[in-house]
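Thread title: Can someone regenerate the structure for this chain?

I was given the following input by a collaborator and told the matching structure tokens would be attached. They weren't. Posting the sequence so someone can regenerate them.
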Amino acid sequence: MSWFDESGLDESKAISKLYSVTIVTASIMVPVLLLWRVVSNFRNLYYMSHAEGAWMTSAYDFTQGVLYRPLFGPLGYGGTRFFPLYIVLTGSLSRIFGRLEDSGMILSAASVALLACGCFVLLRRLDVSVLVSLGAATAILTAATTQEALVHTKGDGLAAMLNVWGLALCMGPHDTDKGKRGWLYAAAALFSLAFAAKMTTVFGVAAVVLAWAFGRRTQDALQLCLATGIGFIAVLSAMYFGSGGRALEIFRVCAGGGGSLIYALEAPYRIIGSALESDPVMVIFLVPAVAFGFSHFKKFPADILPIYFVLVLAVTTVIFGSPGTLFNHLIDLNVAAILLLAYAASRNSAVLEIGTGILAIGLIVGCVEVVAALRYDLGRPSLRAEIHKVLEKIPTDERPILAENSFVVLQAGKSPYMLDPFMFRVATSKYPALGSDLWQKLSHQDFSAVVLERDPETADGNNWYKEVHFGQEFLQDLEANYSFSYSVGNRHVYLPKPRAGLIQ
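Best answer:
Regenerated them for you:
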């Protein structure tokens, strides 16, 4: 009998050692590969879609003294649902680093690095082992949602990072020390900044307040709620007064994305579909996190992380009820799932090895995903070079360029006329007369060129420009007054048609 016990013990030790080696190896390998991706992206600018272009144009507007350009005004068309912190920081950093896109990529990369560090610190403050904390932080880096935040110039990583650090300050040895209220107010400041980066990032402070209320820490909960509420009001006030009152109207028109009740009710299916299609690493952690978290919550209903996971899931469902939402919005759900899995498994010795094994297996799959993403990057053409070729043949006159991706116009040294064609379609579907200036400029050939990201001659492209971007009479006016000239990569350039009796 003892022989079997010793054999089982040796086997268990061997498996534990294998898990440890896997986690440590992945924690070295993943940051190196991701750093390679970041450096390569700096040189070639692989990820600058129309959405990133809207972020960069908003930052450009800020450098010109404009926070939230009007839905229509002297600058052209505005309309966004971005909150301002990433925009303001990117614009401010461009005074140091020069180009807006470089500033945005540095900010995104730094945010993701600090997000991983924040997750490690949070778990350690909850007395999770160094190995499991390291594995969880690395697992968060391998997810496709996190990698998107790393190499895209968007505010998702910044908001997630600030929120996690706010949570970390509410954990551990300081959470019952009444002589150190500074930690509570620092957490409130971080939660407020997270809100300033992304308007839906409210689940961190909500989870802490609820958990403390359940744990009969009513005074702490009220103080945090009050301090963060003041911070939220300060953010909204800064947006309102900084934009000259425009922000309120812009968000009233654009925040919903032009959705419907049926579309909103389908949100859970879109979350599942998006995770399965784009982020298999997340799925590996999401299912066991639900099981482990539910079991843990039944025993410890006042713990923060199970409540946090439920709130993140609820808010993410609301987000996916709005059109135009992509899988980058799964980053907070992925972080919450991995944190809950690591924490719940560490609190139950019976499942600790299982939880560690899930982390190890997830990291193996994650490493494969990181390598595949890097390989994909290295096989892509340089977007910087493509945009340069696009601009070479466009007439260099005083007329603006209409580009689906406003970053193309920024590279031409001009102020973009169109901030976001998706939001233009949303706004003009509510107020059709708002689009009259664009239709007139197309009819009068007031643009030196029209640069599109899809081919409107294909069925997919035709539907895209009728139902998603621009909308209304865009294709009709384009075909009547502009003709296809050339393509560079995915960018299709249209130049004004010659008019009878006129020399172009």
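Strands lie at 72-73, 76-77, 401-403, 449-452, 482-488, 491-496.
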